[in-house]
Amino acid sequence: MRVGFVGLGAMGMHMARNLHRAGLLTAVWNRTGEKARALAAELNVEAPPTLAALASDVDAVVTCVSADADVLEVVRALAPSLRSGALVLDSSTVGAETARKSAELLRPHGVEFLDCPVSGGTEGARDATLAIMVGGKEEAFERAQPILAALGKAITHFGPTGSGQAAKATNQIMCAGIIEAISEAMAFARAQGLPLEKLVDTLGKGAGSSWYFVHRAPNMVRGTFPAGFRVRLHAKDLTICRDMAARFGVALPVVERMLGDYAELVARGYGDEDISSTFRLKAELFDATHQASHDIQ
Ligand code: NDP
To answer: Which atom of ligand 1 is the closest one to the Cα of 130?
Structure first.
């Protein structure tokens, strides 16, 4: 199978390398062409000048770009030049509706589309241990196995087109609630004057623990929030969740609250910090109360 890769960002660069290791990668393309030319020279694969040129010479394309409009732009450029029977696998985090539109754009050309968003961060992309949530036809999922196996470990087909993105959106809502609860709890604990390192160590073994508590509560103890998972990226994902819920006439409280907090953090210049910087806002709740009672005295 000849595979092309589009979108050599923080995730895509690693994923392309893993496809190369599996002997599948034949061409790469990136909007900023220099990145693609450098990787192609290193791996001894093609760096065609256009998406159309890449599309005409492969059996499958994996894309990993930023947001909804970017996926549709790339799919539109690929579609006319792909051969009938080819596959497009999109691993960007976008809305389920974008996945369905992409499938529609490709269908007249006899090309199958799989939404394949991933979880596991740049470490998971590097180590080929990503969790991959797939939507699309079962037959296309079976054909894509060699590609998916080169990129990740937990690979699950959830159903028709868009269901991979729906599963990823579910994950992003959980992350929102968990990080909010941890931030609030840690701000509370600090106000109580508790020894925070001991607290993280002890509660990390308790029923309220989670990956986020163990790995990100220490950021709150130190007061530094290096990325991680950037505030602006999670805000983009929660906007997707908001739109998907709105189709049912529903506004999800956790999503709405976190979008408000993230907008505040971005406005203050913290958009590129890890999402644990939500702690900044929760800590201020107590600081404000403390200040108010001080003012009263
Ligand atoms: P980056 O910002 O590092 O890379 C984005 C890539 O997309 C770049 O190669 C960029 O090209 C390309 N791109 C953006 N817009 C377009 C466009 N209109 N046409 C063509 N190419 C475009 O992002 P990440 O690699 O971190 O993330 C990629 C996707 O994966 C996102 O949807 C993200 O939400 C998701 N994701 C990210 C995770 C992470 O931990 N970073 C974890 C799981 C999912 P150029 O080089 O020219 O800018």
So the answer is: 43
Residue in this structure with the two tokens 């199978």, named with its chain if needed: 1
What is the distance in A from the centroid of ligand 1 to the CA of 223? 28
Angle at 189 between CA 185 and CA 192, to 5 degrees: 140
Question: What span, in angstroms and rounded, lies between the C-alpha atoms of 110 and 113?
Answer: 10
Residue ranges of alpha helices (H) inside 192-273 are 196-203, 211-222, 231-246, 253-267
The reported pLDDT for the residue numbered 231 is 96
Structure tokens at 24: 């599948």
Ligand 1, atom nearest to 91 Cα: 30
What mean pLDDT do residues 124-140 have?
97
**Per residue in 177-208, pLDDT tens?**
999 999 999 999 999 999 999 999 999 999 99
3-class SS of residue 81: helix
Q: Around 273, how many Cα atoms within 13 Å sit in the side-chain half-sphere?
A: 21
Atom 18 of ligand 1 has which residue's CA nearest to it? Answer: 70
Q: In angstroms, rounded to a whole number, what is the distance separating the alpha carbons of residues 76 and 280?
A: 42
Q: Is the CB of 171 under 6 A from ligand 1?
A: no
**Catalytic residues, which ones?**
168
Burial class (CB in 10 A: 0-12, 13-18, 19+), 31: middle
Q: Output the CA–CA distances (angstroms, integers) from residue 187 to 69, 183, 258, 277, 280, in the order listed.
A: 38, 6, 16, 11, 9
pLDDT band (50, 70, 90) for residue 290 = low
List, in order of start, the domains of the chain with CATH numbers: 3-160 (3.40.50.720), 167-296 (1.10.1040.10)
- 76 Cβ contact partners less than 8 Å away, ≥ 6 residues apart: 105
